[in-house]
């Protein structure tokens, strides 16, 4: 019998697991994908929003602001790249200045530092901005964060502290039996005193397994361009247009890796697994983005991608027990600003909601930190040479584009969260994220995974089941 079962290992599920791992509880996380953070948490804008935008008094506003204040310490503990670069919400027409004033007032109500800049101030801080700019709202506490490591390392920390993670485990049904729940999965039944539904796009379907619900999750797709890290200074802040009913709009931002993101679009879709891209939508993204920054070098594009957001019909985060059982907790509809909110949501769910139904006793040996990553590119030449002399694998380059060494890949393969796919390696080390998109390093990564998993290279997956890359072996003679 488990004390707590968490359904879903995205950013929210991972931070709930991390917060619960502080206590003497038997906690298990179920994830239907073959890695953590493989859906919405992998395909987003990678921004730690300041909290100026959510409607005051909403859960979005509270958890956004709280999560933003936690982000620096969380990223230091979890060894995750984070840069507090600030954001600008830009007005390019006189008619938009009134909304800029309203957002400034909303910032104050949410307790977020902000101020309005004149056109001259904006141009000084952002030389590549549209010269017709009329003003901007500057929020200095916004930042950019590595969303892959934020999720992966939160779950790693949870597992290091005793949480059990079960990947490729899909929930088929849930029933109440006496004083606990029985969860039916593709790997058998699991009993638990408490169930936390953090299933993202499918959280409404999980919730309906125990009772009728009055809310639903509507998938909203966003498409992006990724530009190479060709040079610094295209933008110096996260740049937003004025928001609309569709969301925060097409943004232009740097990332912690030096790349630039342009997007996302906002399209309602019927299929929750639809992550396709299309020319017309991307053309519109490009058109809107150039109203902010006319000189965006789209010739530096190295890929496009899309992700689906779990937009709730309630227009606010759903973080509460079900109507029937206080031991079944829904954490649903966590769309933007969900990434920055996730540490605060995890803290609240563990301390306030689980704490109401289970006795929480802190562990004496709990550690909030993961094992530090060795990143040779961040070392001085002297320290890098010393590292390579002691550990030669850190001098063997696997990914030339992103300068990822064999030692870095071996390190992530030795950690507590299983690495099952090429994309899992890519998310953690950036091997394959560069200009050639894995064209040169992917064969090496496949062989490393095959050796690690003790399988033939033809069995190694790129991402999801059925995504094997190597079709067959060819003998040297050509047979």
Quick rundown:
With 479 residues, the chain is α+β, with helices and mostly antiparallel strands. Among the domains are: 84-143 and 217-311, D-Amino Acid Oxidase, Chain A, domain 2; 376-459, Arc Repressor Mutant, subunit A (Orthogonal Bundle), CATH 1.10.10. It is 29% helix and 22% strand.
Task: Describe the secondary-structure layout.
Layout lengths: L1 E6 L3 H10 L6 E4 L16 E2 L10 H20 L3 E2 L3 E5 L5 H14 L4 E3 L1 H7 L9 E5 L3 E3 L1 H14 L3 E3 L4 E7 L2 E6 L2 E10 L5 H5 L9 E11 L10 E4 L9 E4 L5 E4 L3 E2 L10 H11 L11 E12 L5 E4 L6 E5 L5 H20 L23 H10 L6 E3 L4 E2 H8 L8 H8 L12 H12 L26
Parallel strand pairs: 1-2, 1-12, 2-9, 5-14, 12-20
Antiparallel strand pairs: 3-8, 4-8, 5-7, 6-7, 10-11, 11-12, 13-16, 13-17, 13-18, 15-16, 19-20, 21-22
Helix pairs in contact: 1-5, 1-8, 2-8
Folded structure, characterized:
The protein is of the alpha+beta class and 479 residues long. Among the domains are: 155 residues, D-Amino Acid Oxidase, Chain A, domain 2 (2-Layer Sandwich), CATH 3.30.9; 84 residues, Arc Repressor Mutant, subunit A (Orthogonal Bundle). The protein is 29% helix and 22% strand. It contains 12 helices and 22 strands. Strands 1, 2, 9, 10, 11, 12, 19 and 20 form an 8-stranded mixed β-sheet that branches. Strand 11 and strand 12 form a beta hairpin. Helix 1 crosses helix 8 and helix 2 packs across helix 8. It is globular. It starts with a strand and ends in a 26-residue tail after the last helix.
């Amino acid at each position: 019998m488990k004390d707590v079962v968490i359904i879903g290992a995205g950013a929210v599920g991972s931070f709930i697991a991390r917060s619960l791992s502080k206590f003497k509880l038997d906690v298990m996380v179920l994830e239907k994908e073959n890695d953590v953070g493989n859906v919405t948490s992998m395909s987003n804008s990678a921004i730690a929003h300041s909290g100026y935008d959510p409607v005051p008094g909403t859960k979005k506003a509270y958890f956004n602001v709280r999560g933003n204040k936690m982000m620096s310490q969380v990223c230091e503990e979890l060894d995750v790249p984070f840069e507090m670069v600030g954001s600008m919400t830009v007005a390019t027409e006189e008619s938009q200045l009134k909304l800029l004033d309203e957002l400034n007032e909303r910032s104050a109500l949410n307790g977020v530092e902000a101020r309005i800049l004149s056109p001259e101030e904006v141009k000084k801080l952002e030389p590549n901005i549209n010269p017709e700019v009329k003003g901007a709202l500057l929020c200095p506490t916004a930042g950019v964060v590595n969303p892959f490591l934020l999720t992966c390392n939160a779950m790693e920390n949870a597992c290091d502290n005793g949480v059990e993670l079960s990947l490729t485990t899909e929930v088929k049904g849930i029933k109440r039996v006496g004083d606990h729940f029985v969860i039916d999965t593709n790997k058998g039944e699991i009993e638990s005193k408490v169930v936390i539904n953090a299933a993202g796009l499918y959280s409404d379907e999980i919730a309906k397994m125990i009772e009728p619900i009055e809310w639903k999750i509507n998938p909203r797709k966003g498409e992006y361009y990724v530009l190479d890290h060709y040079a610094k200074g295209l933008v110096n802040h996260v740049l937003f247009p004025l928001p609309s009913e569709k969301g925060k709009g097409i943004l232009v931002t740097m990332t912690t890796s030096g790349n630039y993101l342009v997007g996302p679009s906002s399209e309602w879709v019927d299929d929750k697994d639809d992550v396709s891209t299309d020319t017309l939508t991307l053309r519109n993204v490009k058109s809107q983005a150039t109203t902010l920054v006319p000189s965006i070098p789209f010739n530096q594009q190295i890929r496009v991608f899309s992700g689906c957001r779990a937009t709730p019909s309630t227009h606010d985060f759903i973080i509460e027990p079900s109507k029937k059982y206080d031991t079944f907790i829904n954490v649903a509809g966590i769309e933007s600003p969900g990434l920055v909110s996730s540490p605060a949501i995890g803290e609240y769910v563990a301390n306030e909601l689980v704490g109401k139904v289970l006795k929480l006793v802190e562990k004496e040996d709990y550690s909030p930190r993961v094992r530090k990553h060795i990143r040779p590119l961040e070392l001085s030449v002297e320290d890098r040479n010393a590292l390579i002399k002691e550990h030669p694998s850190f001098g063997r380059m696997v990914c030339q584009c992103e300068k990822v060494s064999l030692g870095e890949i071996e390190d992530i393969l030795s950690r507590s969260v299983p690495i099952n796919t090429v994309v899992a390696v890519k998310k953690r080390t950036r091997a394959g994220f560069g200009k050639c998109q894995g064209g040169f390093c992917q064969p090496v990564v496949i062989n490393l995974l095959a050796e690690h998993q003790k399988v033939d290279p033809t069995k190694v997956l790129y991402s999801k089941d059925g995504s094997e890359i190597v079709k067959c072996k060819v003998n040297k003679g050509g047979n």
